[in-house]
Specification:
The protein is mostly helical. It contains five helices and no strands.
């Protein structure tokens, strides 16, 4: 049996898909982790938010850079940046970069600080200040998640291609 040649494009496509999984897969679990920790031990919210900050810095953002770089190669090699499904997806990725940098990461840091203060106070439940930041995070995190789903749809269905 002959082994078919593996094209560089195929390797970049693999790297692109893997980077998408690494960048965005974990964020789909954040609402479930939050709900679980709130029920099990609200004092552990500090650890959750510190872990989110760590993941964003070390996994999510670097993987998003790989998604962008590999996506540019893929688009320029076989497609056109003018294709609506490609330009829309690049726009979505840039918006997500903005949300991560301007809203989500600073809010994760603030949530960690507030959760730590709540734990030290011994109140046994999150403060209103924490809850306000948690609502902000849920809103913008939900928006980012929706954008990720739309981007995945566009990338897999390729409407108009």
């Amino acid at each position: 049996m002959l082994i078919p040649a593996i094209l560089f494009y195929d390797v970049v496509l693999f790297v692109h898909v893997l980077a998408v999984v690494l960048a965005f897969g974990v964020v789909f679990t954040y609402p479930m982790l939050d709900a679980y920790i709130r029920r099990a031990n609200p004092g552990d919210l500090v650890v959750l938010h510190r872990f989110q900050v760590f993941l964003t810095r070390r996994v999510v953002t670097p993987s998003m850079v790989v998604v962008l770089a590999a996506g540019l190669y893929l688009a320029l090699d076989r497609w056109s940046l003018g294709d609506p499904w490609i330009s829309a997806t690049f726009t979505i990725l840039i918006v997500i970069f903005g949300l991560v940098g301007a809203v989500l990461t600073p809010t994760e840091r603030r949530l960690a600080e507030l959760a730590e203060a709540d734990r030290r106070s011994g109140a046994g439940k999150p403060s209103e200040a924490y809850e306000a930041q948690a609502r902000k995070y849920a809103t913008f995190g939900g928006l980012a998640t929706l954008l990720i789903v739309v981007a995945i749809f566009l990338m897999t269905v390729k409407p108009g291609a």
